[in-house]
Amino acid sequence: MEPSALKVLLVASECAPYAKCGGLGDVVASLPKALRQQGVDARIVMPLYASIAKEKYQLQPEPPVRVLCGNGEVNGCGVWRGQADGDVPIGFVEHDRYFARTGIYDDNGYEFGDNAFRFGLLGMAAMQICRDRDWLPDVVHGHDWPTAVLMPQVHAWRKAGLPSGRTASVLTIHNQSYQGYYHPSAMGYLGLGAEFFTPDGIEAWGKINLLKGGINFADAITTVSPTYAREIMSEPGGQGLAMYLQRRSDDFEGILNGADYDIWNPETDRRIPANYRAESLIGKQTCKRELQAERGLQEDPAVPLFGIVTRLASQKGTGLMREALPWALNEMNMQLVALGSGNADDEEFFRWLARTYPGRVSAEIGYSEDLAHRIQAGADFFLMPSLFEPCGLAQMYALRYGTLPVVHATGGLEDTIEQYNPDEGRGTGFKFYSPTGQAFHDTIGWAVSTWYDRPSHVTQMREQAMRVRFDWETSAQRYLAIYRRVVARQRN
Ligand code: ADP
Ligand code: GLC
C-alpha cells in the first residue's frame, strides 16, 4: 500500500465470516476488499464477540487501549488483530462486559438494554486504536445504527479541536427500520453534550435515536440501492426520518451493493455437489436431485423447486409467505425448501408447513452457510417477497446460480431484477407490485405456469440471469468518489 493511500476505517457490528446476521456482514467484508484493490488503505474494526474463535482465525494480541468515555469512565479494551479476506487488516475490540456474549444485538430476540454503551464504546475504542498506532483515518465509515453514533462523536471531537475530529465521516444505512432508541442518560458516556440532544441532533420522542444522530452529523450518507434511497426520503419508508434525509439530500445517495463472486459462483463453489455454468446446466440438475434427496423431497426433476433462505422477520414478507404458501401448495404441483431463523412464530409456521406437506416441503430452522449455497444451486426459483428491501444480496446470489427470483418490486429487488417478458421470453425474474398474499400467490403461479408451459423461456431467463453481474469494483469506485469529496471538504 502506498504511504499516500487514502486511509479508510470501517467500523461495524458485523463482518463475515467472523459474525454475521445478514447482508450487512457480507458488505462489511467485501467493500474494504474492493477498496484495497483500488489502492485505498481500508481497514475494519469490530467487536470480539464470544462466538469469534481467536485460534480459528489466528488472531494476534496487540497492546490494549484505554478508552476515556465522555463521563470520565475509563474502559480498558483488549485488541486483537486479524487478516480478513483480501488481506484487509481487521482489529477486534475485546471488552468482556460488553462483547463476550453470544448474540450480536440480542439474546434470543430480547434486545440487550446496553447497546448504546456497547456500540458507543466500539466506535470510541476504534478511534483510540488508530490514535495509538499513529494511523488516523482520513475517513471513518460507519454502518447502520450501531456505528451511526460515531457521526455526532466525530462532530464533537471536531468542535473541540481534537485530532480525531480531522477525520471525515460517512454513514451507510443498510436498514432504516432499526434506528437504535435509548435512554438519554447514555449521552454523557457517549461524549455528547446537551447541545446534541435536540430534534435536529440526536433526540427523538425524548430519547436518543442513534440513526437520526448519524444522519444529522455525517459528512455524507449513503444507502444500498437507488430505489431504497428514494423510498426512505419520503414517509412511510423513512420511518419518521424522511425529512432529515431530505435536508441532507445533497450529501445522500444510493449505491447498489455488489455480490462477492469469489464466494458465490456455481462454476467454482465447493459447497455444492456439482459445478455448472451458463452454457451447460447439467451440474444444476445434479444439485437439484441431491437437494431433493438430502431434504427428503420427492426426487422428481420435472417438479419446480422453490427455495427460501432468509432471516425470519416481518421485513422479509413472512406475513405474505404465511398467506400464500399453503394456498399455492394446495393448488400447484411444486416443491419448497426453506432455510431460516428468527421470529419464533415464523419458525413454527415453517415447521408446520413441512409437517403438512411431507415430501413436498422441507424446512430447516437455523443458520447454515453450506445449506444456503446448496439451496441457491439446487432450487429452480428463489422466493423473496420482502415488504421492503434496502438492497438484498440473496436475490443477487440466486441470479448467479440461475435460480430465478420471485420478488416484491421494492428497494434493491426492484433495481436488480428484470421483469419476465412472456412475449420475448426475456427477463431475470418475476416481480409483483402490491405487497399482498394474493399478489405473491399469483406470481408464484406465474412462475409455475412458465415452468410447465414455456420451459424454453425458463432456460433463456436462466442464461440471462447467470450473466448479470453486480461487481464490487463499480460500487467501490462510487464510495471512493464520496470519500474524496468529504475529505476535500474537511481539509478546506
Ligand atoms: P438481510 O441482510 O436483510 O438479511 P440480504 O439478502 O442482504 O438480506 O442478505 C442475507 C444474507 O444472509 C445472505 O448472505 C443469505 O444467504 C444469508 N442468510 C440469511 N438467513 C440465513 C440462514 N438462515 N442461513 C444461512 N444464511 C442466511
Ligand atoms: C440489510 C438489508 C439488506 C441489504 C443488507 C446489506 O440487512 O436488509 O437489504 O442487502 O443490509 O446492505
Keywords:
Rossmann fold, 21% strand, 9-stranded mixed sheet, binds alpha-D-glucopyranose, binds adenosine-5'-diphosphate, 18 helices, 2 domains, 492 residues, 6-stranded parallel sheet, alpha/beta
Protein model, in words:
The chain is of the alpha/beta class. It folds into two domains: 7-258 and 472-491, Rossmann fold (3-Layer(aba) Sandwich); 282-467, Rossmann fold, CATH 3.40.50.2000. The chain has helices at residues 23-37, 96-99, 115-132, 144-148, 150-159, 187-190, 210-217, 226-232, 242-247, 282-294, 318-331, 344-356, 369-378, 394-400, 411-416, 437-453, 455-467, 472-491; strands at residues 7-11, 41-47, 60-68, 74-84, 88-94, 106-107, 110-111, 139-143, 168-173, 181-182, 203-204, 207-209, 220-223, 252-254, 305-312, 335-342, 361-365, 381-384, 404-408, 430-432. The strands form four sheets. It has a nine-stranded mixed beta sheet with strand order 3-4-5-2-1-8-9-13-14, with helices on both faces. Strands 17-16-15-18-19-20 form a six-stranded parallel beta sheet, sandwiched between helices. A three-stranded antiparallel beta sheet has the order 10-12-11. A hairpin with a 5-residue loop joins β3 (60-68) and β4. The two termini are 26 Å apart. The mean pLDDT is 97. The chain binds adenosine-5'-diphosphate and alpha-D-glucopyranose. The site of alpha-D-glucopyranose (GLC) has 14 residues, from α1.
What is the topology, as strand order, of the major beta sheet?
A: 3-4-5-2-1-8-9-13-14
Could you tell me the number of beta strands?
A: 20
Mean pLDDT across residues: 97
CATH homology group of the largest domain: Glycogen Phosphorylase B
Rg measurement, Å = 23 Å
In whole angstroms, how far apart are the ends? 26 Å
Q: So what's the oligomer here?
A: single chain
User: Could you name the ranges where pLDDT drops below 50 across 5 or more consecutive residues?
Assistant: none
Content-based structural category: alpha/beta
Q: Just name the CATH architecture of the largest domain.
A: 3-Layer(aba) Sandwich
Bound molecules: adenosine-5'-diphosphate, alpha-D-glucopyranose
Strand content bin: 15-25%
Instruction: Count up the domains.
Output: 2
Shape: globular
